[in-house]
Amino acid sequence: MSTNKILIILLFFLLQYPLTLFFTNDEDMLYLPEEEKLLGIDGTEEIRKGRPVTLDELYGIIATPNSRSEITKLKYGKTIFKTVTTIDQHGLRISTASHRPGKSKHLLLIDSSMVFGEGLNDDQTLSHIINLKSNKYEAYPIAFYGYGPQQAWVRFKQEKLSSQVLENKGQAIFFTSEWDIWRFFGSLNTLYHTGEFPFIDEVSKGNFVHRGNFKNSGLWWQKLLINYCIPFLFCANFTSKIERRYLDDNQYSIIGRFFEDVERLYRKEFNVESFKIIFTGNSDEAQRLAQHTNIDVIPYLVTNEDSYVDGHLKPEPVIKLADFLFNTKLID
């Protein structure tokens, strides 16, 4: 490595602290007993009353059990949305339409923010809509902010869902995209929020083990960035903007086998009708995943432009997704 490159790297690390101070202020990441205030450099301000998020050694973060929180998001002082989020004793988001008499089957909806319903009220979530429409299935949102596929694997590995889901027979739909696969591998553009996420390693073909998290057990460059770069807001924002557009065939082979292992763990715990993947990202990437797994992969494009506004979900795409599930007879 040339002397100039070494000097540039050293200068970058030396400037992180003053740049962080320049872009933030004393109110950033202000934690109060019952209120959390988060300020972003893009002019957004999020005020959380209650505790919707709890740090967790195994999952990284979890929804706080038995909690009710109000989240207000503003941009340049103007309220973008205000929502109520209610979490049950198991850490699952409550659907106010849930547990109607006569439901005989479960429907596990596995994903991150879209299934959880970030920016939506309890009665606007996908699980709520399905529970209103379906006479057979009780929908359970196995999801939380920014989760990747590894959190679902850990949850099934613990074999605790059978005590939380009332119906033994049913099916699961795993909503995923390129972003989830990036999170699984700890890609550079995801490290700003996945450092504490589970690091799952394939020790032999189809045999996966939990190695800790990316911060303490990831690849050397992941640990270096997470411990010495990401803590600074300037660096976190810089790395998050470095988009990764390519996943090689080996990575797709690994993630394909990983989804199959999630299905295996699911079938071990429940009487399973079906396990399907709905790929909400690029259709070409959906096809590539389908070539590397025995699980049915159904393409369903969800674009950020159509589904999100200022970083939170709009209700309309969730309604549209529910209609797609019913119209295609994936559920009834």
TL;DR of this structure?
The protein has helices at 3-23, 113-116, 126-133, 149-158, 178-185, 191-194, 214-217, 220-228, 233-240, 249-269, 283-290, 304-307, 315-327, and strands at residues 30-31, 35-39, 44-49, 53-56, 60-63, 67-75, 78-87, 105-111, 137-143, 169-176, 198-204, 207-213, 271-279, 297-299, 308-309, 312-313.
Describe the 3D structure.
Helix content is 37%, strand content 28%. It has 13 helices and 16 strands. Helix 4 runs parallel beside helix 10.
Map the helices and strands.
Elements: H1 3-23, E1 30-31, E2 35-39, E3 44-49, E4 53-56, E5 60-63, E6 67-75, E7 78-87, E8 105-111, H2 113-116, H3 126-133, E9 137-143, H4 149-158, E10 169-176, H5 178-185, H6 191-194, E11 198-204, E12 207-213, H7 214-217, H8 220-228, H9 233-240, H10 249-269, E13 271-279, H11 283-290, E14 297-299, H12 304-307, E15 308-309, E16 312-313, H13 315-327
Parallel strand pairs: 8-9, 8-10, 10-13, 13-14
Antiparallel strand pairs: 1-2, 2-3, 3-6, 4-5, 6-7, 11-12, 15-16
Helix pairs in contact: 4-10
Poorly predicted parts:
17-33
E-strand count: 16
Which oligomeric state applies?
single chain
- Biggest sheet architecture: 5 strands, antiparallel
For the record, give the distance between the C-alpha atoms at the N and C termini, rounded to a whole number. 61 Å
Integer average pLDDT: 85
Spatial order of strands in the largest sheet: 1-2-3-6-7
Helix content: 25-40%
